[in-house]
Amino acid sequence: MSAKEALALAEQKNLDLVKIAPQSVPPVCKIMDYGKYRFEQAKREKEARKNQHVVDIKEVRLSLNIDTHDFNTKLNNAVKFIKHGDKVKVSIRFRGREMGHPEIGLETMKRFADACAEFASVEKPAKLEGRNMLMFLAPKSNK
Q1: Cβ-count burial of 120 within 10 angstroms (0-12 exposed, 13-18 middle, 19+ buried)?
Q2: Residues 28-36: what's their mean pLDDT?
Q3: pLDDT per position as a tens digit, 76-95
Q4: Deepest in the core among 22, 109, 111, 114, taking most CB within 10 A?
């Protein structure tokens, strides 16, 4: 029908004429209460924002010559972060003469990744950047 007829029909029913697909030929319109539609749309968006989870990046710092108990404590913290759905950044800072032994840090990182393998996957493998060695772990997707 023509735009004038549709507009007259909408006014008769005390509703609005809303263009749904203005690019198509002829344009597609719908007769509806636009205020109610906008309200329901805002309500849906608010509900979606309430239910979404923002992924944070938590950091766990290890040292090059970390002891078993300290390692396990850091591991438990990382697992707790991962179970909550956050990503974990594992870092080792090399100080002084430790810079001469990056292979020890790499082995510590590998051990940490293996210990977290049940809950997390390695997103970025361990890499030396300046005096820091970084590795990122992401939670495994539950499918």
Answers
A1: buried
A2: 89
A3: 999 999 998 899 999 999 99
A4: 109
